[in-house]
Amino acid sequence: MTTETVEYIRYRIPEDRSAEFLSAYTRAAVQLTAAPQCVDFELARCEEDFEHYVLRITWTSTEDHMEGFRKSDLFPDFLAEIRPYIPAIQEMRHYKPTTVRGTGSAVPTLYDWAGGAEAFVRLTSVFYDKVRADDLLAPVFAGLAPDHAEHVALWLAEVFGGPPAYSESQGGHGHMVAKHMGRGITEPQRRRWVNLIQDAADEAGLPTDAEFRSAFLAYVEWGTRLAVYFSGPDAKPPAEQPVPRWNWGAAPPYQG
What we know:
CATH superfamily of the largest domain: Globins
Number of strands: 4
Helix content: 40-55%
Strand order of the largest sheet: 2-3-1-4
Order of helices and strands: EHEEHHEHHHHHHH
Radius of gyration: 23 Å
CATH architecture of the largest domain: Orthogonal Bundle
């Protein structure tokens, strides 16, 4: 999971200097774009008071920013562009995300688009019927609790933007990871898992639009590859982390 940090830099720039300020940051952005420590960035201007700006930079970590970027060959050119505006800085701090997060309803969650809790119950029911009949995967899942499919439905529902029922009843990401420790999952088994859950999604009536299925498969690929890693002999369990929240990625739902 991520160690990313978000740096916020708040400026107050007189309106008669706004054009030169924006030009300077357009040039400085070249250095940010080239920095391997920089995830993304955005400079926003206040609508109510045009003199106020906020620069948001997501760094791979605070240390990567302070010890990596600031000591790199890119920083002198970046600093040269923004140096005239340093006295106008009102705040410059790093922030870590908390567990308070969510999305509004302007764009539906993957959970809602899929059909809510019932869709994921159908999905896992069909999927584990397939697993039990599959010669490659049946041994991996032998001896699992009868409510395993129900728990996976709660997990997937939460991952795709539904209520935190898995977190509240089972735990966070670490709890799910622990169930894979020592199982020795192979790449052929992982690939079969991916194929079967896509077949199950078809049979369970999950949406077939390109945007949903690309996001759905992206999570399946990420999750199953983590499962292979954490099931290996040398894997160490991660620190306790929240359940990941997946989103639409590059292509939001098409609503023509």
